[in-house]
Specification:
With 529 residues, this protein is of the alpha+beta class. Helix content is 69%, strand content 9%. It has a five-stranded mixed beta sheet, with helices on one face. It has a two-stranded antiparallel sheet with strand order 1-3.
Length: 529
């Protein structure tokens, strides 16, 4: 993204923040209005609930004439509360249902009390006409029994000896229970209405508080984004340009460092980012070219070294070969001439001469093999068959070694020189077997792909010291007590002439693994026959 677009986007972001704040405040204003309306409703419910309780209390305190007026008020407030709950579904459902049920129950209870009061008034009139003594107290009891029905019943039973089963006494006791239940229900209505009012007030306060917080957040955010974005863009561009200048200076001195990837590729790059990307690509290419040049130089040095050593080895081997043959033949003649009458000392000396001569001849043979270094004559070779045959022909003792091979015979075919490949695996297997004096596992895996075949030779021997791993393919380097140090150098030459690669990894005391990668025959250069 260009710098121009970044600057434009920074202003758009600032404007967007202000637009969000305006939209949020408008929505919040609507919400405040709704919550205030809800608060008005809950406040009305709370006030009418208190008025209902007040008229309920007056109904039980006043005279029958006044009680009728209070009864009408009670019914009026019940109707108004029911109407409010019906017309305003925005009251929370749980509270609404609870309050509706309570009001309905309250109305049923109050109607029951009114009916009981009407029946009790008739019972009092009947009781007054049946007994002149009681008739003088009936008006007093009738004026107070709604306030305290149970005391009125106690008065009638103790003073006038009304039986407990009398309909008047039973009616007063039921009335007392109904009044107690009505008062509890009324208390619940008031409590629920107060809770609704409290929740509504808390909601209004919460919405107002959120609006205040939004203003306190969005305005500083607007200034921070606007100014901060401009500051970030300018400082970021200058910082990256300075980094680029420093890296260019290092590149001129032969170093190829990278600029941080996060500065360009983590996001869509701007003009500076594109420049950094291109510069990093150039650095990558320069580094690859330098590495390739270094590798070619190492290969050239190794080739020159091997060529020089090969020339020297060929000359030394030719010069030593004839004297060694004469010594060997002379020792054989001496052994025949001595015959059975020779002393043990002479026999031991002649045997030692023959053994050491044979050993030197093997060394000379290795020198000649290393020096010849002929080009491979490529043929189609099945590695599965070749490796199995090589292991069977080993001259070293393999009795304690467990050999295993994992290879697909059909997929292990490639172009190679059979004799040279035999020499490769003879040297590798011989080294592995000699490294496992106490026995162990020698495994070969052949992995096939479209373009190449990979051979992995692993043993469980004593391993190679870490400091020696870089030297194992150099001529005359060996970690064995007896050895010419030419076996792996010969292996290396053969693999390189097959356009392949060989690598070694090892852990001391745990074993060594050689990995050979050879190209398939369709990509290899070989003699067609």
């Amino acid at each position: 993204m260009s710098l121009k677009k970044k600057i434009a986007i920074s202003f758009f972001i600032s404007a967007f923040i202000i637009a969000i704040l305006a939209a949020f405040e408008y929505i919040n204003f609507v919400e405040i209005k709704k919550e205030i309306r809800y608060l008005e409703i809950t406040d009305t419910v709370s006030r009418k609930s208190l008025q209902l309780r007040r008229h309920e209390k007056n109904y039980f305190l006043y005279s029958p004439q006044k009680a009728e007026e209070e009864s009408r008020e009670v019914h009026r407030y019940i109707g108004e509360l029911r109407e409010i709950l019906t017309r305003n579904p925005n009251i929370e459902k749980v509270d609404e249902q609870s309050l509706t049920d309570r009001i309905a129950e309250y109305e049923r209870g109050f109607n029951a009390i009114e009916l009981s009061a009407s029946l009790l008034n008739k019972s009092f009139d009947i009781a007054g006409t049946s007994n002149d003594k009681i008739s003088r107290f009936i008006p007093l009891v009738k004026s107070t029994y709604l306030e305290q029905p149970l005391k009125s019943a106690t008065f009638l039973t103790e003073v006038f000896h009304f039986p407990h089963r009398h309909s008047l006494i039973a009616g007063l006791e039921r009335l007392d229970a109904d009044i107690t239940a009505l008062r509890k229900n009324g208390e619940a209505i008031v409590l629920i209405s107060k809770d609704l009012d409290k929740v509504a007030r808390e909601k209004v306060e919460t919405v107002i508080r959120v609006s205040q917080i939004a203003i306190l957040i969005f305005f500083p955010l607007f200034f921070a984004v606007g100014i901060g974005t401009l500051f970030f863009i300018s400082t970021n561009v200058v910082k990256r340009l300075r980094l680029l200048i420093n890296v260019v200076e290092k590149t001129g001195k032969g170093s190829y460092p990278h600029l941080p990837v996060a500065a360009s590729r983590a996001k869509a790059p701007d003009e500076v980012g594109v420049l950094i990307d291109k510069f990093n690509d150039m650095e990558d290419q320069l580094a690859l070219n330098a590495a390739e040049l270094e590798r070619k130089n190492r290969e050239l040095m190794q080739t020159k070294k091997l060529a020089a050593i090969g020339t020297l080895a060929a000359g030394v081997a030719h010069e030593l070969n004839n004297p060694l043959n004469n010594i060997h033949l002379s020792a054989q003649v001496l052994a025949k001439q001595a015959g059975e009458n020779s002393s043990p000392v002479l026999e031991e000396a002649v045997a030692d001469i023959l053994g050491q001569t044979a050993r030197v001849k093997r060394i000379v043979g290795d020198l000649l093999e290393f020096a010849r270094g002929r080009e491979p004559r490529l043929r189609k070779v099945n590695l599965h068959e070749l490796i199995s045959a090589v292991y069977r022909k080993l001259t070293v003792d393999t009795g304690k070694v467990h050999f295993s091979m994992d290879a697909d015979p059909a997929g292990a075919v490639l172009a190679a020189d059979p004799e040279q490949m035999e020499q490769v695996f003879i040297n590798l297997f011989t080294n592995s077997v000699e490294a496992m004096n106490e026995g162990g596992d020698l495994s070969v895996r052949v992995l096939s792909s479209v373009d190449a075949v990979t051979i992995i030779v692993s043993d469980g021997g004593r391993g190679i010291p870490r400091e020696s791993l870089d030297k194992v393919f150099e001529p005359f380097f060996t970690t064995k007590d007896k050895g010419t140090g030419l076996g792996l150098a010969i292996v290396f030459n053969i693999i390189r002439k097959h356009y392949g690669e060989i690598a070694v990894t090892s852990n001391e005391g745990r074993g060594t693994t050689f990995t050979i990668t050879l190209p398939r025959m369709e990509t290899a250069k070989f003699d067609a026959e």
